[in-house]
Amino acid sequence: MSVLENIISIFNAHGFAFLLATRITVSITALSLIFATLIGLVFAFFKISHNKFLNRLADLYIGLIRGTPLIVQIMFLYYGISSVIVLSSFTAGAMALGIHSGAYIAEIFRGAIQSIHRGQMEAARSLGMSNALAMRRIIFPQALKRAIPPLGNQFIIGLKDSSLVAYIAVTDLFNTALSVQGENYMPFETYFVVGIYYLILVLLFTVLLNKLEARLGGGGIKGMKIA
Questions:
Q1: Residue 219 has pLDDT above 50, yes or no
Q2: Is the predicted pLDDT of residue 104 greater than 80, yes or no?
Q3: Residue 70 burial (CB count, 10 A)
Q4: 50 or 216, which is more confident
């Protein structure tokens, strides 16, 4: 059989399994990114806080996460913490992905917030607004618009990083590809097929992010790179 015929046969034989795996990949990615965004917001505000303890706590978290491989963090949460609390592979994977992406999202939010001219905060304070109210009504909405393009790239990275949860037995796209390849002994064709699924997900994600930025008034993610 030719390579094309092998690829078609894989689609025919395992298409439904890949669709189920796609749902798991999307679910674990979405959950992890929601978690990551919440963590990122908290630690971004820690970074710009005048409280030295919060600053150092944020530096410790960001430095620790960015300084260790994601696969180590996944293994630590799934196997290392199991002596204290038992986590399912899906939960451990989502948490690890969220904690990992959260460190990068924190820096994205911090940079976006600090890019807003400080005069806007001073003007809001002169009108009688508290720091928190000025941040919520004036600073953060503008910062969010500026953060969308780098957040979009980080979200796409998070989607692709989700493939690592295959190593803790989450039946995502990559895990399914490993199983299929173990059955058919056609690694080139199998990984080509799973690559198509990931590419489609990334393209769909990019379209959604473009629409989101356009709705916020940014005009789309021009020249956004697929990281």
A1: no
A2: yes
A3: 18
A4: 50
Q: 105 falls in which pLDDT band (50, 70, 90)?
A: very high
Residue 145 near residue 216, CB atoms below 8 Å: yes
The CATH architecture assigned to 3-215 reads Orthogonal Bundle (1.10)
Rounded CA separation 184/178 (Å):
10
- Phi/psi class of residue 128: alpha, beta or left (left: φ > 0; alpha: ψ in -120 to 50)? left
The better pLDDT of the pair 216, 91 is held by: 91
- Both tokens of residue 160? 């692709």
SS (H, E, C) the chain: CCHHHHHHHHHHHHHHHHHHHHHHHHHHHHHHHHHHHHHHHHHHHHHHCCCHHHHHHHHHHHHHHHCCCHHHHHHHHHHHHHHCCCCCHHHHHHHHHHHHHHHHHHHHHHHHHHCCCHHHHHHHHHCCCCHHHHHHHHHHHHHHHHHHHHHHHHHHHHHHHHHHHHHHCCCCHHHHHHHHHHHHCCHHHHHHHHHHHHHHHHHHHHHHHHHHHHHCCCCCCCCCCCC
Greater model confidence, 1 or 162 = 162
In the chain, domain spans: 3-215
For the chain, first and last CA: distance in Å?
A: 34
What local confidence, expressed as pLDDT, does residue 99 receive? 97
CA distances, 165 to each of 18, 43, 50, 122, 196 (Å)? 16, 25, 37, 46, 19
